[in-house]
Design brief:
The protein has helices at 4-10, 13-18, 43-54, 68-81, 95-100, 114-126, 141-154, 168-178, 197-200, 225-231, 239-248, 269-278, 355-360, 364-373, 381-395, 403-421, and strands at 34-39, 58-64, 87-89, 107-110, 130-133, 158-160, 185-193, 257-264, 295-301, 306-312, 324-327, 330-333, 338-341, 352-353, 427-428. It is of the alpha/beta class. Strands 14-13-12-11-7-10-9-8-15 form a nine-stranded mixed β-sheet. A six-stranded parallel β-sheet has the order 3-2-1-4-5-6, sandwiched between helices. Helix 3 (43-54) packs parallel to helix 4 (68-81), helix 6 packs parallel to helix 7 and helix 7 packs antiparallel against helix 16.
Length: 446
């Protein structure tokens, strides 16, 4: 699987130019095409754009961004793919609203800074557009509730584009879990454990060269993401970890989260990074960072599973989402790429290499579309999250990752902030489905 740093390199124009853009094996009549607009053409938006341009069942008709350099890079991607140029909307931060007035757009993909996701999603649904939004969905519980209300009022489909739900090993483990190989589910772990110091800062000349600058002197995510670490303390990015785990234990589909408690460590990593790269006299060396270097969250479900999440982005470390899936018959852990299944593992109390199991229980979606996913970002899982969103809209079926998932996974952030600010108290987890979780069926990856 690609790390974030490798993905950024892959998103460069040099790599885009080298990559072939084959069409999917399935083709559709022009009348079946889904017409898409993209809001936000930064590195993440460009990745979605590239994948859309591979498809015969999509017309990417419009793009919107306020940064000319990103628009220019995106137009080069269209040229490489030999695709019709889209209409461009730019000029100010609300230029996207003009794009939403277009009658020839069925759905929008939103790949902008977090703080814009909520407002843009609301505007898009009110304009009659389906929404595929990058994580996270919103920043407050009030915004989350409003998002659900507007989705219900408009009838537009909304999906948060959480790609890790489609990671190949994770889907194989889900396949094994659904076949009863882990027994009854007891405990799960995951998180976002990724050294982002070179993403959050730059040196003013090289986009990802470390350094001590951010905000207006930053590039890409350093222009906005770093500010959240300065002002907020909680699990700021929970969806990569919780998304797959929530699907495994049927959250919002027969099960739900009931309570949450979070603790944050002291904050030292970002200060040390600034001092080491910019010196003790650098203006940013005096900043007080709110985000604890390691944030740990425990969640309890109605079925009495426990879930441990960790957010760890400010310290030196290798990348890991730290997955652990444990039941009455055994467990899998992704850090050591190992598995233990009682009665199946060769030696009692000894880890076994998980790869043979992952190969044997490869999920049917991966078996079907592995060739189409080749070359897609993050080890191919970017293909699946976009593909499943597009297929649902074209076939007029429910999106597999829906508004309730977006709400529940995103709510971990404000709830963790509340728990930490009150000394690590347990807080009740809202039921955003208002009881419908009891009868909803889990259609994800079925």
């Amino acid at each position: 699987m690609l790390t974030r740093k490798q993905f950024i390199k892959q998103a460069s124009l040099a790599t885009v130019g080298a990559m072939a853009l084959p069409h999917l094996s399935r083709s559709f009549a022009p009348s079946d095409k889904l017409r898409i607009g993209v809001i936000g053409t930064g590195l993440r938006g460009q990745d979605h754009i590239e994948l859309c341009l591979r498809r015969n069942d999509v017309d990417l008709v419009a793009i919107c961004d306020i940064q000319q350099v990103m628009l220019d890079d995106t137009m080069k991607i269209f040229a490489i793919a030999n695709k019709t140029k889209p209409r461009i909307f730019t000029g100010d931060k609300y230029a996207y609203r003009k794009m939403l007035e277009a009658k020839d757009i069925d759905a929008v993909i939103i790949a902008t800074p977090w703080e814009w996701h909520y407002e843009m999603s609301i505007d898009a649904m009110n304009a009659g557009k389906h929404v595929g939004c990058e994580v996270i969905a919103a920043t407050t519980l009030e915004e989350i509730r409003n998002l659900i209300e507007i989705q219900a009022q408009t009838g537009m489909q909304y999906s948060v584009l959480e790609n890790v739900c489609y990671r190949r090993d994770v889907m194989a483990i889900m396949n094994m879990l659904r076949q009863g190989m882990f027994g009854e589910l007891i405990h799960l772990q995951g998180g976002y454990q990724h050294d982002l110091r070179e993403v959050k800062f730059n040196n003013g000349t090289q986009p990802y060269g470390g350094g001590a600058e951010f905000n207006e002197k930053g590039f890409s995510e350093a222009q906005w993401r770093t500010q959240h670490s300065l002002k907020r303390n909680g699990d700021l990015y929970p969806t990569h970890g919780i998304g797959p785990l929530a699907m495994m234990c049927d959250i919002n589909r027969g099960n739900r989260f009931t309570s949450l408690v979070s603790y944050a460590s002291k904050a030292r990593g970002l200060h040390e990074h600034i001092v080491n790269t910019g010196g003790e006299s650098h203006p940013n060396a005096g900043l007080k960072w709110m985000l604890g270097d390691v944030v740990t969250t425990m969640i309890k479900t109605e079925r009495e599973e426990t879930i441990l999440l960790q957010h760890d982005t400010s310290l030196p470390r290798p990348y890991s989402l730290g997955f652990r899936v444990q039941g009455t018959r055994g467990l899998w852990m992704d850090v050591n790429k190992s598995i233990y299944l009682e009665g199946k593992t060769k030696e009692k109390h000894r880890w076994e290499d998980a790869k043979p199991y992952l190969d044997e229980y490869d999920h049917p979606l991966w078996k079907k579309f592995a060739a189409d996913a080749q070359g897609a970002g993050h080890g191919g899982m970017d293909f699946f999250v976009l593909h499943e969103f597009i297929e649902a809209l074209r076939n007029k079926t429910a999106v597999p990752i829906d508004i309730y998932d977006a709400a529940t996974w995103t709510a971990i952030t404000p709830l963790s902030e509340e728990s930490i600010s009150k000394g690590g108290i347990s807080v009740a987890f809202p039921d955003f489905t208002k009881g419908k979780y009891k009868v909803r069926q889990n259609i994800f990856a079925r």
